[in-house]
Amino acid sequence: MQWVRDHQPNPQKEHAYKIALMITLLGNLSLAIGKGVVTNLTGSIALYADTANSVADVIYSLAIVIGLWLSIQPPDLSHPQGHERFEPLVGLVVSVMIGIAGYEALRTSIGRFLAGGESITFGLPMFVLLGSAALKVGMFFAIRRLAEKTGSPSLRVTAKDNLSDVLTSLAAFVGILGSEFLHPLLDSAAGILVSLWIFRAAFEAGRENLRFLTGAGANEDLRKKIIDTASNVTGVQQVHHMMSDYVGPKLVVDMHINMPGEASLDEVHALEDRVVASLENLPEVDRAYVHVEPYEDTLSTKDT
To answer: What is the pLDDT of residue 33?
Structure first.
């Protein structure tokens, strides 16, 4: 079937996914193990909160592997529109996992704070947190570049989470340092701060992916870009209807355009193909469906 042939997996996109997943999984696994060992040795609550965040990162890395593999499968009879919605579904699951990690970190931090806190000796935890921050900076730039290349919302969430992890590690660093030189409660206070930052990351990730799952449409700037793209195709006299909705991380566009009524069927078909091609060249658009109608002066452009 033609629609199946048109939606075969993209080898370059699959390769970019594999690189991103290897970086994410190996990086997060290394950090979770390293932080867990040092947390057990030192008892730092700030480091414990950061470790909980890294454990959640490992779990969502595994979930992303499954979600991205499903999302790149071609359409079939069970999913004629493709499997792209699996990716934001995984992104939503990831946001829940991040939230659970935030809850665990917050619960433990508040408990230690109410107990009076504990001074953490300067040493190994500090080097672990600084090393974690440095590694996460590298992961952020690498994953962000791959997210831009593939247009993947899951990888965008992952990149943002890496940047958040840099800030949480630095907050834990300051808390541990302060617990020794200023007050023991600062370690627990840093743990609470880290927890709240984790909740923020979970909320933002969930909000973005929920838009993709619920069929939200393009924002105003993107709607204008889509209409202008079609309007600039030679032969299009007017775009009088445009509707878009997310099917996964990209848009499906339904558009009505006008051309002279005396045009032949061959001319109509050729124009339709040119408009579809121009729209599907946009990085935000997955598929476009164009309906051609005879031009009438009374028609006005409508964007819904």
So the answer is: 87
CA angle 6, 12, 13 (to 5 degrees): 75
Q: Are 25 and 65 in contact (CB under 8 A)?
A: yes
Residue 128 class from Cβ within 10 Å (0-12 exposed, 13-18 middle, 19+ buried)?
buried
CATH superfamily of 2-213: Cation efflux protein transmembrane domain (1.20.1510.10)
pTM over 0.85: no
Under 8 Å between Cβ of 46 and 188: yes
The CATH number given to 220-294 is 3.30.70.1350
pLDDT tens per residue, range 26-75: 888 888 888 888 877 777 776 777 777 777 778 777 777 777 777 767 66
**Between 10 and 90, residue with greater pLDDT:** 90
Average of per-residue pLDDT values in the chain: 76
Inter-residue contact 63 to 25 (CB < 8 Å):
no
Tokens representing 241 are 């209807």
